[in-house]
Design goal:
Layout lengths: L1 E5 L2 H11 L8 E7 L5 E7 L3 H12 L3 E5 L13
Antiparallel strand pairs: 1-3, 1-4, 2-3
Helix pairs in contact: 1-2
Length: about 80
């Protein structure tokens, strides 16, 4: 999970939209959602490593948000796509 506090939502989402085709091999984007005001974003990406997700995000949208990265607890999740 990538949980972001967004400073420029247009550039943040624009960067990620352009980068979508450049996901690391084997990675799948499951969820991308923003708060109504654009200040917060949650993205769920399945990947081999959290470091790969961090590198991907920081490369394409890091300048427009402060993002925290977490491994999801899928066993206790509700509604998490499989």
């Amino acid at each position: 999970m990538a949980v972001s506090t967004v400073s420029d939502d247009g550039k943040f989402w624009g960067g990620l939209k352009k980068a979508h085709a450049k996901l690391p091999k084997g990675a799948t984007w499951k969820v991308a959602v923003a708060s109504k005001d654009g200040a917060k974003a949650v993205n769920i990406i399945t990947a081999d490593s959290i470091e790969g997700v961090r590198d991907f995000f920081e490369t394409h949208a890091g300048a427009y948000a402060r993002t925290e990265y977490f491994e999801a607890d899928a066993a206790n999740a509700v509604g998490l796509p499989r």
